[in-house]
């Protein structure tokens, strides 16, 4: 048995150029298929780990999905801001228990900066729990330039409690550290919770406004801005059942506001994503079928060039079934090597793109071992390749010895 | 012959005992109810009367102040719709559509159950006594506008004294797709 494997390997190596292309095409299609599975799983898990406890998200009239993506997941751009003074109007609405402002648009080293109030930490939940501080405690009484970092931000920037940092206006990426103009001091670091909060930097709304003043006029002192703007308000209700009624009240306010139920908006996003998901899957399947056909065709063609080789095997005493297994072994080898290569290729791509995926799409994707689903798909692939390779294999099995030794004239 | 007769009678006896045991537990089971039954009789009559009176606005154009006024009035009545005491604390079974609340997709996030499709996008929304806040059992997963059956104990929701609104809370034991 082992000797046949060696013969198969040696024979394959002798014809490596054609087989190499076969292996490569298998690898690429495996990478595409596993990649589609991975994207699908990772987007699902990334988006299901959102904040909770927020009943309505209020923003300027526009697309509800966009508002949720921007204010909750920090993806995309806000279409319009709303006056921060509206907070009072919203708190005064019947049934509203709390209102938390959310200001977005600035960034610290590519991490979104969220201007908000202390209530954010008291009210908003992640994975059904209130936000927990890993270090620091000053949340109860934050001063103007206090900063709280999300878990991932603290981990990746290596910042510590008490350190001073410079937060830039706009979404610039400048690495310069001008401490004279950076009164921000880290007072707390949040525990990891798997939500977009991990990747955010929190400052007070007043600091957020001051930041804009500094950028606009080079002011050294913070000044409270009377026409401060917010990207969105998170609202919690006394009775969650009254959500429709409160939403209607907000929609009919004269400021052309929009109140969005986060769960509904996200489900809308899901259903629109399902179409793209299925399209991707279909393409991956098409690539896979092409590869399988390619392997079969190459094996069939190679039979012609191996006519003598196989005939010699027969002449030295190989049984027809041994010739058959030789062809099948080759197909299996191509398939397995292709799968291994394709999987490694995918891990490499994920490793290089994970930073981009997280920042631009909010999708957390890390290299991982194949899932149960992946394994099953790959098993099917091997089976189908074996079945389709049995066509050339049976042809080789049937080849008469004399026919092989005497090439057709 | 005798033996088979004996055999059958024992079987019959066993069956009837089992039946007798099963019956009371069946009576304790969830009572299937309609959404209409969640409105107090008196309130329902009042609303129907109100709506009939409003028919004379039928010819009004959209944006007419009188129509707006009538709509405002209706909204107030809707929001203040009282719950009926009939089923409070009882185990019920009811079918409706899902309106999720949280963006987070945890397996046991609370959601609202409403009587008609599209209640979350269309205005006006259902009256307060036609909305149920469902606390699902662990491991149940639902999506917007899924049609489901919910089995569980119906409770009165938080009552807000100034607004008078209150909705039902349903502690769900079982959620099954509607068929």
Annotation keywords:
heterodimer, A: 409 residues, alpha+beta, 2 domains, 10-stranded mixed β-sheet, 3-stranded antiparallel β-sheet, B: 179 residues, alpha/beta, globular
Mean pLDDT reading of chain B? 75
Shape of chain A: elongated
Greatest interface by residues involved? A-B, 36 and 38 residues
Q: How much strand content do the residues of chain A show?
A: 15-25%
Instruction: Record the strand order, biggest sheet of chain B.
Output: 2-3-4-6-5
Would you list the SSEs of chain B in sequence order as H and E? HEHHEEEEE
Q: State the share of residues found in helices of chain A, binned by percent.
A: 40-55%
Task: Give a verbal description of the structure.
The complex is a heterodimer of chains A (about 400) and B (about 180). Chain A has about 400 residues and is α+β, with helices and mostly antiparallel strands. Chain A folds into two domains: about 1-45 and about 270-405, no CATH class; about 55-260, no CATH class. Chain A is about 55% helix and about 15% strand. Chain A contains 13 helices and 15 strands. In chain A, strands 2, 4, 5, 8, 9, 10, 11, 12, 14 and 15 form a ten-stranded mixed β-sheet that branches. In chain A, strand 4 and strand 5 form a beta hairpin. In chain A, helix 2 (about 15-50) runs antiparallel to helix 9, helix 3 (about 65-75) crosses helix 9 (about 260-305) and helix 11 (about 320-360) packs antiparallel against helix 12 (about 370-400). Chain A starts with a helix and ends with a helix. In chain A, about 40% of the residues are buried. By secondary structure, chain B is of the alpha/beta class. Chain B is built from three helices and six strands, in the order αβααβββββ. Chain B has a five-stranded mixed barrel with strand order 2-3-4-6-5. Chain B is globular, with a radius of gyration of 23 Å. The interface of A and B includes residues 49 and 53 of A.
